[in-house]
Amino acid sequence: MSDNGGSSMDLLRSEAMQLSQLIIPIDSAHLAITYLGHLGLIQFNDLNAGKSPFQRTYAAQIKRCGELGRKLRYFKVQMLEAEVEASARSGTRSDLNVDDLEVKFGQLEAEITEIVANGEKLQRNYNELVEYKLVLQKAGEFFHSALSKATAQQREAGSSHGGESLEAPEAPLLEEQELHSDKQVKLGFLTGLVPKAKSMAFERILFRATRGNVLLRLSFVEQPVVDPASGEKVIKNVFAVFFSGERAKSKILKICDAFGANRYPFSEDMGKQAQMMTEVSGRLSELKITIAAGISQRKNLLHEIGQHYEQWNLMVRREKSIYHTLNMLSIDVTKKCLVAEGWSPVFATQQIQDALQRATTDSGSQVGGIFQVLRTKESPPTYFRTNKFTSSFQDIVDAYGVAKYQEANPGVYTIITFPFLFAVMFGDWGHGICILLATLFLLIMERKFSNKKLGDIMEMTFGGRYVILMMALFSIYTGFIYNEFFSRPFELFSRSAYDCRDPSCRDATSVGLIKVHDTYPFGVDPVWHGTRSELPFLNSLKMKMSILLGVAQMNLGIVMSFFNAKFFRNGINIWCQFVPQIIFLNSLFGYLSILIIIKWITGSKADLYHVMIYMFLGPTDDLDENQLFIGQKAIQLLLLLLAFVSVPWMLLPKPFLLKSQHNNRQDGQSYVTLTDESLQSEITHDSHAQEEFVFSEVFVHQLIHTIEFVLGAVSNTASYLRLWALSLAHSELSSVFYEKVLLLAWGYNNLIIRIVGMFVFICATVGVLLVMETLSAFLHALRLHWVEFQNKFYEGDGYKFNPFSFTLVADEDE
């Protein structure tokens, strides 16, 4: 464990913490909090919890930082729209302070807002002119067609009437008077564009509103046009409505407004149409150049912002976090000092004092900051100093629950046991190499990926890269033990120790095998693979190995409970919890593990199922051929007696001893000297000493705990058989894919079938064995650690140390 000012890191127990009080002069407070934020080793308590955010001292400054943040978000939106990337954080420090940033952001925002507003206005004018040009083209076609028809009719009439003088074809189409009519009719027309999706309804409403007294002509526009009002691309039709009377015109105008139809002026005179077309085309060219210049100016300005965006963003977020922290401090009655309280590691005391002294010197304050340690019975937060390798393993433990202050940390053992138990289920050194290669890619790209936003799955995979690395290495190791490379055995370390007595025994049974060489030095002899005895042999091996590993890990958990009780000086837990638990577990399953090892060493054919069952059903019966060693029967009787005694030992003494302890405390008979260590023990484990002691509740709790352990000893041992089951499933799946896909396809003398077979084999191997099986084994290993291992000693009811740190502020999402 770290001592004051030490720098050693102990992952087994969390750092010693202290509640400290800081008294900081107001004129150096901002600088002091800044230096403490760079240090990142103090967790401030909120001393103004009863005040609303608006009642706090620095509410105006936080509002000001919020406004700066809003402007930065506005810049970010504009950069995304313009496809301008923000540069990585520059190494050069900016000389700008928050006041300078406020002025600069105001100028930049006003400039960008003006450019954007002008650009939108020009773009709207441009879109209107584009539509106007379409109207001139399409409506001009209407009138040109009508003029052609009129000319043709006049020619026909002229030829039939013998050259009778008629009205010239160049006369206006909508003359205000008709030939051979006494009554004058005034006709008018409107032109514009209407969305194609609304054209049918538009036509129907016009017909009904005017009772059919209109003529509507529609012309389809091939390409979508940008609507000036919405700025979205819409497929539209050009329309021309011919009507008579002002009343009809008023109705048509209202209908156009209702349907979002844009109207544009149009002249029936051919000369004016050509003149308007020329003017519109010229204005479009000018606007196009002007808009391009505006976009270029905006992009240049955003590029300039992008070069400093990350630096400015970090400055604003840091400044806001500083004022948030200052708002957690209380102001003294003289209004000259701020008082802070917070948790910090004991080793950081000198560093905090140095930061306060530096803030006093740099701010030119007349009075220095004061640091003092407070006594408290409040439980401190839990703080483990981890690095990028150990942090992912610690996260696995913290996902179950954060360790109570200075209780034994399972993360130390998880670094080895978690990837090892995974590899027991996954063991195949071919698959392990594939996972190792994928992990090495993540490690090579570590610096690049650390500064990028990854997807959820990729982020999780990259965060656990060192866990996956250990899983891959252990999988290669267990793969060598199982002697499996994509389910195929290899004579890696020497030749097989066995050979067939005659050719008929090969690939049929192991009975005909005779030992001709030395024992295979490491792992399973390759001769077992492919024989009829492969499954019975490997099943027996892996099942017994699973029990041995499970009992060993559960014993480790119980031993950790002893070290917890010893560290916290809890003698009751040692004698009434650790001792009976270790006796009960090893009287049954520890004994079974010893029998397994003896059977392996001696080569006995004793039935261990029979031994364990009749140890309970017939403890005095003779063992006969199931006897593995002399005195086995007497030892079994002794172990059975110890197992039965340990159950009431776990149940009865502890509640009565706790009651006696409580009575002595109440009677004032348990006074002790308040040394630092006894006070620490009192803080961490006797925080509820003043609460009322209810014997019935304590007894029921102990009863539940005893039943849970007794039944759990059986169920947890059986739970470790998942190591055997998943290892068998992985091996058999790999064998099926190899024999029924790859070898089957390779049996055909056809290149296409072989390529398809290879492709299917690779997809099945990657998808099922390297992804799904990896996830399955990972989750089962997680369950074995959380339930079977950690419940023996780990309470996990603490809370994490969350210091004020600029590193954490920089890593937070906006």
Automatic annotation (TrEMBL):
One GO biological process from the UniProt record? vacuolar acidification
Identify one Gene Ontology CC term for this UniProt entry. Answer: vacuolar proton-transporting V-type ATPase, V0 domain
Where in the cell does this protein reside? Answer: Membrane
As one GO molecular function, the record gives: ATPase binding
Chaperone among keywords: no
**Positions of transmembrane segments:** 420-445, 466-483, 545-563, 583-602, 634-652, 751-772
* Membrane topology, record value: Multi-pass membrane protein
Tell me which UniProt keywords the record has, alphabetically: Hydrogen ion transport, Ion transport, Membrane, Transmembrane, Transmembrane helix, Transport
Q: What's this protein's family per the entry?
A: Belongs to the V-ATPase 116 kDa subunit family.
This molecule's function is given as:
Essential component of the vacuolar proton pump (V-ATPase), a multimeric enzyme that catalyzes the translocation of protons across the membranes. Required for assembly and activity of the V-ATPase.
Q: What is this protein called?
A: V-type proton ATPase subunit a
Q: What is the lineage of its organism?
A: Eukaryota, Viridiplantae, Streptophyta, Embryophyta, Tracheophyta
